[in-house]
Design a protein that fits this description.
Chain A has 157 residues and is mainly α. Chain A has 7 helices and no strands. Chain A folds into 2 domains: 50 residues, no CATH class; 73 residues, no CATH class. The chains are: A mainly alpha (157), B mainly alpha (197).
Chain lengths: 157, 197
Amino acid sequence: MNCWQAQAQLADYSAGFLQGEAREHLQAHLAVCPACREHLAQLRALDQLLAGESLSADEALVHRIMAQVQEADILRRWRRRWLLDSLGPIAAALSLGAAMIVIAQPYAAEWTAALSTWQLDWELLAQPQWALGTVVGLPLVAGAVAWLTNWLAEALT
Amino acid sequence: MAMDVVFANRLLASFTDQATATSETALVARARTGDHHAFEVLVRQYRNRVLNVAWRIVSEADAAQDVAQETFIKAYQQLPRFRGKSKFGTWLYRIAVNEARGHLRARRRRQARWEKQATLQAVQPVPAEAGEQAGPIVGLLQELPEKQRVALALFYLQELSVAEIAQAVRAPTGTVKAWLSRGRKRLRELAQERELL
């Protein structure tokens, strides 16, 4: 092994990455070569210098971090609460829409025709099945869904 | 031949790690459920190490403090997603490295803006922030390519194996070894040029 080959491996050697035969060959070269030993000593000195140059985190940093953690937690809880609170109305609106689609399905063709000409069929609206569905059925379904989601929200928080 | 000091420290750190791993796992589990006290213990345990990783990458004490702070806040927010596949420390250092790199990108953008303005207004550009508050050797790190600097910043924590550094920077182990080797060689040359060695 010559000096050029040895010095190419010194950084790996001093970091403990060099194993087996390669390590043994380098150690044999170092035993007889003062220049490479000097090179290795410099690398080690550099490691120690860099390891010695360090900062210390003060208490203020810990306090700032923990204050921000508290803040992040409050925000997270608030977001979760807001999401759960809004689940009721959202579910109610969705169920209302779904119920309307189900009820209006037998009249889909008439509604499509009415909407395409922008003329509402008031006779259709006055039919007992439609009126009953709207007045009694929809609020019942919406109320039940809202109550259920509210109960779920309470249970989760 | 006497065992290298850095290598010996790393070996010792790995034994200590095994002993503290259990208590750390418990702390992480508690912190995941929103236990602030447990998280504060983790912050105290890692604050110096995270701060120094950040400092060696950004080379500026104030910026390193900001990076460390952001690292812990991000870690707290992302704790529910931490699955424990790697060590908590490795995961935390990955966040620190990402934050520090983000800081460097922002700094480069600022620098480019200043230089552009200076060219337009024909005034002296604002000097670079890098290295202003760094120690002599940490200042030299700034002259290395970013990847080598990041690998060295984690290497000089003296607690991570190359595999763990590779995990933290999401790069193959062989690549990290090459970054470390080239980085230390270049650092030695720079230190010699400045007569620090």
